[in-house]
């Protein structure tokens, strides 16, 4: 009898815990609808815009054969498809968050954290790309490869300390602009998701 009573008590406690977890999860999902919808809309726009940019660039490269010899064009052909893939998986993750019914709390938290991590990774990769471009520019100048980047001849005419100052300025401006644009289009929504995620802990 005591064993049966203990089992019933445990089942009652487990049911209450599961019910509370479900209520918290349901409420959190509802609050996350707005930031998720905004991120979803942004991802959809990018999935339309980026392929169009790739097609435009491919057409321009065909019309203007000299573009084939420019480093920036080839970097664009690498970065744009990779960015498109990033937005595709971002959108796929958002859809899985929206469509999951009665998902396990830990699984839901994991997906939201992954979404936040993906967007932060994107921001850091854009900063890394501008740093790589700056370093590559200086390497090309040192090796006298002037035709790969338009306007690089003017940079070669400047003294190294002045070039380094310009590079630092470009990196600094890019950091500020990228941070502002990221916060405007992504960061504010990710901040809301982080806050809601913290409430679930």
Automatic annotation (TrEMBL):
User: Any transmembrane segments, and where?
Assistant: 47-65, 71-89, 121-141, 161-182
- UniProt KW keywords: Membrane, Transmembrane, Transmembrane helix
This protein's name: Uncharacterized protein
């Amino acid at each position: 009898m005591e064993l049966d009573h203990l089992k019933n008590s445990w089942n009652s406690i487990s049911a209450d815990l599961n019910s509370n977890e479900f209520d918290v999860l349901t409420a959190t999902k509802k609050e996350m609808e707005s930031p998720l919808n905004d991120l979803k809309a942004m991802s959809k726009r990018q999935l339309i815009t980026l392929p169009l940019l790739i097609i435009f660039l491919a057409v321009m490269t065909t019309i203007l054969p000299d573009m084939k010899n420019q480093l920036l064009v080839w970097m664009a052909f690498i970065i744009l498809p990779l960015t498109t893939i990033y937005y595709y998986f971002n959108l796929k993750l958002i859809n899985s968050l929206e469509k999951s019914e009665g998902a396990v709390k830990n699984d839901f938290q994991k997906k939201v954290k992954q979404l936040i991590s993906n967007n932060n990774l994107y921001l850091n990769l854009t900063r890394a790309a501008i740093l790589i471009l700056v370093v590559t520019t200086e390497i090309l100048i040192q090796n006298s490869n002037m035709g790969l980047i338009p306007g690089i001849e003017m940079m070669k005419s400047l003294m190294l300390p002045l070039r380094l100052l310009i590079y630092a300025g470009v990196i600094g401006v890019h950091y500020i602009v990228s941070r502002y644009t990221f916060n405007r289009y992504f960061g504010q929504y990710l901040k809301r998701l982080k806050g809601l995620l913290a409430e679930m802990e």
